[in-house]
Each structure stands twice: as C-alpha cells, then as structure tokens.
Write a structure and sequence with these properties.
The chain is of the alpha+beta class and 255 residues long. It contains 11 helices and 8 strands. Strands 1, 2, 3, 4, 5, 6, 7 and 8 form an 8-stranded mixed β-sheet that branches. The chain is globular.
Length: 255
C-alpha cells in the first residue's frame, strides 16, 4: 500500500492527480494517465480554471461538502487590459478578439504556474483566486509572482502587435491584489461552479481599477504577507469607490 506522501501530487504544472481534491479532501482523483480514463467516462475531467484540478472541485460544495459555501483565507487578483476601449474603436473585431485571447492565455499560464485558478473571465479582464482549492501558505507571494509574470508575458506578447493610432493611450495591463477572508461557494441557482465573494474581492477589484498600464497595486495586507517581494515598493493613497477611508497601496511598476 502506498503512503500519503507517495500519492500526494507534486507542486508541478502536470500533476497526475487533482491537487484541489487532495488538498481539500485528501482524495486522489486521477486527472492524467491511464487511470484518468474511467473518470472521464463519468464526466470528471481537468478543470478550465486550472489544469491541475478537476471538475469535482467545481461542484464539490453541494455534492461533496454538503454545504453551499465555506470561509477561507485567500488572495484575490484582478487583471485588465488598459487602453482596450480606446483600441476597440480603432481596429477590427477579429484582431480585437485575438488580443483578448492572447491576454487571457498569458494570464492563465502565469496564474497556473503559481497554483492559482482563473475563476472568472470578463472580456478584457479576469479574476484569479490563490489558496483555494490548491492550498499554499505563501499565497500572497504566489499572487504577486503571478502578477509579475503577467506583466512580463503580456508586455512581450502585446508588443509584437502593430497597434497604431493609440496616441497617448498605451496598451498594457493593470493588476490589483488583496489578501483576506472570503466566502467561496456556489452562489448561483443555475451554475454549478464556484466563486469567491466578500469585501476582499471588492477591494482587489477596486485596486485593479486604479492601476495604470504596467502597474501592480497591492494592498497593505498582501504586502505584509509578502514583505520580501514588496520591500522598496512605492506607496499610493487611494480614494476607492464604496470604501469610506483612503486605502494605502503598494505600487510595483514594471515598465
């Protein structure tokens, strides 16, 4: 009989068993190799949120956990293309969709590389969750490292496009990150996958809305959890919609 250490998936980009099911329930669900074939026959496949988790993770709340949502500590990341609206008025829709696909693909690669999940895509923006369902003690650091990769990969990819007529509206990516308690679960009556809600999610979204092209805005809570990555970063005092007091954010400019 194999012990737990031999079953547990390594922290890699091609885990053979679902890392979410293992971390949350200690159940080894095959997602790669011959052992995964019977599971695929029952509709259990790799999740589009992260290829190292399975579709059981998306439906686990009602069918496995027997509850609609759970409280968790997590780091939330929002990313969005800056200058996209200006660009959308000046180029054809086919090229516009190519840019969106490129952006989402580069973001997903960076998020998956650091054990996050792409929880939502919203046109030229997306939301990622770190520390659920794949557990990481250093989830704040993981989110910042993913954001740095997003900026680097997207700047390189977008720079290859011949985008004329932008004027003073540079095309780039703005990122916002916040760490705190969230409610994670199935909050819709017609969708079976999960998401996160709460003040932590709202603040991360507000930070992203204030980030300029090439910037990563990080809350003080996230900065405290990832001090080695944010030491020396600049600060900015922000008046954010829906938040009474000014919010101090750390600023990492990548260009």
């Amino acid at each position: 009989m194999r012990d737990a250490s031999s079953i547990q998936p390594a922290a890699s980009h091609d885990a053979r068993i679902c890392r979410g099911c293992w971390d949350q329930m200690h159940v080894p669900i095959p997602i790669r190799g011959p052992l995964a074939l019977p599971f695929r026959a029952f509709g259990i496949t790799r999740s589009k949120m992260n290829p190292n988790i399975c579709t059981i993770c998306e439906r686990s709340f009602r069918y496995v956990k027997k509850q609609s949502h759970v409280a968790a500590s997590a780091t939330i990341l929002f990313a969005d293309i800056r200058g996209f609206t200006h660009l959308s008025e000046r180029i054809e829709r086919v090229r516009l969709s190519e840019i969106v696909s490129l952006f989402q693909g580069r973001c997903a690669e960076a998020i998956w590389a650091h054990d996050g999940i792409v929880n939502k895509t919203m046109g030229d923006g997306l939301m990622a969750i770190f520390n659920f369902p794949i557990l990481r003690k250093d989830h704040a650091e993981a989110a910042i490292r993913a954001a740095l990769d997003i900026q680097r990969h997207c700047a390189d990819a977008l720079g290859r496009h011949d985008l004329v007529g932008l004027g003073d509206q540079p095309l780039g990516v703005g990122v916002g990150i916040h760490t705190g308690e969230v409610e994670i679960g199935e909050f819709s009556t017609f969708r079976s996958d999960f998401t996160a809600i709460g003040g932590t999610v709202n603040l991360a979204a507000r930070l992203e809305s204030q980030a300029e092209a090439g910037e990563i805005l990080i809350s003080s809570e996230t900065a405290l959890e990832a001090a080695t990555l944010t030491a020396g970063a600049g600060t900015r005092l922000l008046a954010l919609k829906g938040i009474d007091q000014p919010v101090e954010a750390r600023v990492i400019a990548t260009h």
